[in-house]
Amino acid sequence: MGLEDVQFANYSVLLNLAGPSASSVTLSSSGQCFHPNGQPCSEEARTHSSQDLLYSYAAYSAKGTLEAEVIDVSYGNADNLKRIQKM
């Protein structure tokens, strides 16, 4: 027994548009700035409208500033979450 017919389906989910200012992540250790899609921040990127950054934002994240250590949670399953809880 087991899985006999496995199929993959790709979907594009379009959520509400980002606001007038694009989200970014800045590394406190180096000052490097990145958009959530991995592209580095630049003056040119900041001058484009939010329409140009359609796929480079977290649709449901709150506005503000966050500073935290990056933690790899692997797949985010129960075992992975228990592992990081012990850290």
Question: What would you say this structure looks like, in words?
Answer:
This protein starts with 24 loop residues before the first strand and ends with a helix. The chain has helices spanning 43-47, 78-85; strands at residues 25-26, 33-34. A hairpin with a 6-residue loop joins strand 1 and strand 2 (33-34). With 87 residues, the protein is largely without helices or strands. The protein contains 2 helices and 2 strands, in the order E-E-H-H. It has one domain.
Question: What tags apply to this protein structure?
Answer:
5% strand, 2 helices, extended, little secondary structure, single chain, two-stranded antiparallel sheet, 87 residues
Order of helices and strands: EEHH
Tell the overall outline: extended
Number of strands: 2
Radius of gyration: 18 Å
Poorly predicted runs are 45-57
Helical amount among residues, as a percent range? 10-25%
Largest beta-sheet details? 2 strands, antiparallel
Intertermini distance: 39 Å
Strand content: under 5%
For the record, the count of structural domains works out to 1
Oligomer: single chain
Helical stretch tally: 2
The structure class reads little secondary structure
Q: How are the strands of the largest sheet arranged?
A: 1-2
Query: Could you tell me the mean pLDDT?
Result: 71
